[in-house]
Design a protein that fits this description.
With about 500 residues, this protein is an alpha/beta fold. It has 4 domains: about 40 residues, no CATH class; about 220 residues, Rossmann fold (3-Layer(aba) Sandwich), CATH 3.40.50; about 35 residues; about 170 residues, Glycogen Phosphorylase B (Rossmann fold), CATH 3.40.50.2000. The chain contains 16 helices and 12 strands. The strands form 2 sheets. A 6-stranded parallel sheet has the order 3-2-1-4-5-6, with helices on both faces. The chain has a 6-stranded parallel sheet with strand order 9-8-7-10-11-12, sandwiched between helices. α13 links the parallel β10 and β11. α9 packs across α12, α10 crosses α11 and α10 crosses α16.
């Protein structure tokens, strides 16, 4: 019986394991030998090694969970349906039934849409039967206009920027536009020299069936189609997801590169095999994206895996003024704490842990603490601040007070960011800021920070990582033990290694 349970646990964990249940040490990423543009030999060698996609040490926090000296005060949260750690409570039968009905209805609707668009894709494929397009190559393909499409969260958009940079190096005479959601696009307000224009569109307006009855939605879609067609793109790169595939077709680009399995049959003229995050694969998001650049004719180099985000001088000046207005002390280190998460509450470190860490950073190390977030994060941030007992100085709460461009400038200004798996984590990596990334349900091998100044902390318990991009990253056991095992003492120890704090100068 015990052996069967252990086998089940290993199956849930995913990947090969050794006798102790830990990940097998000889597990390599998939060979990256395919691609129309090809990969430089250095890049192939680089990717075939067992490389940590995050820099620095990864602590095994499980054994430290109840270490003396990590006293954490628990209180009742003033938030509905959450436990003392700030995580969602186990749903009652009515909520579970409602969630099941919603998911079932969604699957039926998406299945019907898939069938309809698959028929359209068959028509598109039929036009190419007698004239198969030649592989994209700098010898035969000379695009004037390129469209890169990534309709996703902020961190995913930042991780897609190496595609833009690589395509611009490959086709220096081409003008490249980026299509993104309005909520993410403003992170690119720093005038990226590789981009001609950032176009915005929000496909989430179609989430409800009643959206089909709203004339405004159809007018917006028609206006976008006309705008894209007027640009006469030669190439469209659908980085991720079915909506990107649809808009690649609507753009009118004669060559369309993307993962065919993520869209609809026949939509891509140059379809990459597989899809993002297939079971058993251990490629990082950036590697998946760069494979598409290779399909588009680029030769990938090891340095293409780096992130780079441009921050405007105006945003830097605005943030400096805001910090001084909030009581920032320029002579002390500035540490940013992003205490919230998107797309799943289990990606967030426990609320009382954050309060304990902030208290110690202020009281023991005399650090400036700034909290980041959006207006929707204010309830979580308030719960953290209500537990902070330090009176020598107060944390600076910048949640809801900055634009995305200003957030990038703020993270560039800080000495250290402490966060869970979040968009600000990738922004900090892209602007060259040291960071500590606390991971639980998500796998840093897939989506961890790409930076030589990043340290990932995670607890390697049997069920972690459990997130497979099929929904929000919430603990199916409603314990989120993987995040609770990482203590404030461990995070503080790493923070003191990265920043010259008062107690250790």
């Amino acid at each position: 019986m015990g052996g069967a349970l252990e086998a089940a646990r290993r199956a849930l964990r995913g990947g090969r394991r050794d006798a102790s249940g830990r990940p097998a040490k000889n597990r390599d990423p998939l060979p990256l030998s395919w691609g129309r543009g090809g990969f430089a030999p250095e890049y192939l060698s680089f990717c075939k090694q067992k490389i940590a996609t995050f820099a620095g040490s990864a602590y095994n926090a499980e054994a430290q969970a109840k270490k003396p000296g990590n006293n954490i005060t628990m209180q009742t949260l003033p938030m509905h349906n959450r436990d003392e750690y700030g995580y969602p409570l186990h749903p009652d039968s009515r909520r579970k039934l409602r969630a099941t009905l919603v998911q079932t209805s969604k699957r039926i609707l998406l299945g019907a849409i898939y069938l309809l668009l698959a028929l359209l894709g068959c028509g598109l494929s039929a036009k190419r039967l007698w004239r198969r397009p030649a592989p994209l190559s700098t010898r035969t393909f000379h695009p004037r206009r390129i469209l890169v499409i990534r309709l996703d969260l902020i961190g995913d958009l930042v991780m897609s920027l190496p595609v833009v940079r690589t395509l611009k190096r490959t086709y220096p005479d081409a003008q490249i536009d980026l299509l993104a959601t309005p909520g993410s696009a403003s992170i690119l307000a720093g005038a990226d020299p590789d981009l001609r224009e950032v176009i915005t569109y929000d496909p989430n307006i179609w989430r409800r069936p009643t959206a089909l009855l709203r004339p405004r939605n159809w007018r917006e879609a028609r206006a976008l189609r006309q705008r894209l067609r007027a640009n006469h793109y030669d190439l469209a790169v659908s980085v991720f997801g079915p909506w990107a595939a649809i808009l690649a077709v609507l753009s009118g680009a004669p060559r369309r590169v993307g993962y065919g399995a993520e869209g609809y049959p026949g939509f891509m003229t140059d379809s990459a095999p597989g899809r993002h995050w297939q079971p058993g694969e251990h490629l990082h998001e950036i590697d998946y994206d760069l494979l598409l650049a290779s399909m588009a004719g680029a030769t990938i180099q090891p340095e293409d895996r780096s992130l780079r985000l441009y921050v405007s001088t105006q945003a830097q000046q605005e943030i400096e003024a805001l910090l001084l207005q909030e009581g920032f002390r320029p002579d002390r280190p500035l540490i940013a704490c992003h205490v919230t998460s998107n797309n799943g509450q289990s990606k967030r470190w426990p609320i009382p842990y954050w309060s304990t860490l902030i208290d110690r950073l202020i009281q023991e190390d005399d650090a400036n603490i700034v909290l980041t977030g959006a207006p929707v994060d204010l309830s979580i941030i308030k719960a953290v601040l209500d537990r902070v007992q330090a009176r020598s100085s107060s944390p600076i709460n910048m949640a809801g007070k900055t634009s995305l461009a200003q957030l990038a400038a703020l993270l560039q200004r800080t000495n250290l960011l402490i966060t869970g798996d979040s968009g600000p984590m990738h922004i900090a990596a892209a602007v060259g800021t040291a960071l500590i990334a606390i991971h639980g349900p998500t796998d840093p091998a897939h989506s961890g920070p790409i930076s030589p100044q990043a340290t990932v902390l995670r607890s390697d318990i049997w069920c972690s990582p459990c997130y497979h991009a099929q929904g929000p990253a919430d603990c199916r056991f409603f314990t989120t033990q993987c995040m609770k095992n990482i203590t404030p003492d461990q995070v503080l120890r790493v923070a003191r290694q990265k920043v010259p704090l008062e107690a250790h100068e």
